[in-house]
Amino acid sequence: MNTTIPAKRKNLTPQARRAQLVDCAQILFATKGYEATTIGDVMAMAGVSKGGFYHHFQSKEALLEALAERMALQALATIEPILEDPWLDPFTRLNRVLRQLRIRKSETAPDVGKAFDAAFQPGNIVLFDRIRRAITAIVAPVISKVIADGVAEKVFDVPDPESCVEIILHLNAAAYDAVSAAMAERDRGERGPALDRLYRMMEMQGIAVDRLLGLPDGSLTWIEPGTLEKILQLPAGESSAR
Predict the structure, then answer these.
(1) Predicted confidence (pLDDT) at residue 20 exceeds the cutoff of 80
(2) HSE-up of 60 (CA within 13 Å, CB side)?
(3) CATH 3.30.428 describes domain 72-231
């Protein structure tokens, strides 16, 4: 996430001004929390009048909707190359899509960690839930198609691909408390039970998804060793022994 305060330019196109307001909201929600951020905060950072703000958004909730939609479209953009690769079979395609959505790539995990910190800080559960819902609405149809293709090729044994995808994507929300606990542990300068529990939860989620798809346990790659340490930005030398 870009944490640079946007320039307070006056002569922006309506589209650019709207994008600037969303940029400011993203920064403020990350630093102050969604609940604590006011429309006045956004106006001050963007350098716009009250009328200028309400020309684009009717409320803070509408601004949140725009931010959630942006982040959902960004998530979709990360999986589009996988979806469009004609050489991938349904299993490989789904495995790569789920890994990308779940953890992004290990080499970009520190950037993902910044987004994690924003979504999981106190006061941002509304932000987390809205982003999750937006991502589900946008990516669920394309993942459903991948699963349906796999069912047609007898790779997956799923009676209802759409319901299956909803369950898979909702597993992210199930880890909210475990991620928050691991972050609190990190902020205390510790590395112990909370991170281990989060790894175990991720492993169990992977097994649950395998079984939903009618696959043997351990078929999908749900979490890779060391990735959570990178996402949580743990200091070198404190990584898990996994």
Answers:
(1) yes
(2) 17
(3) no
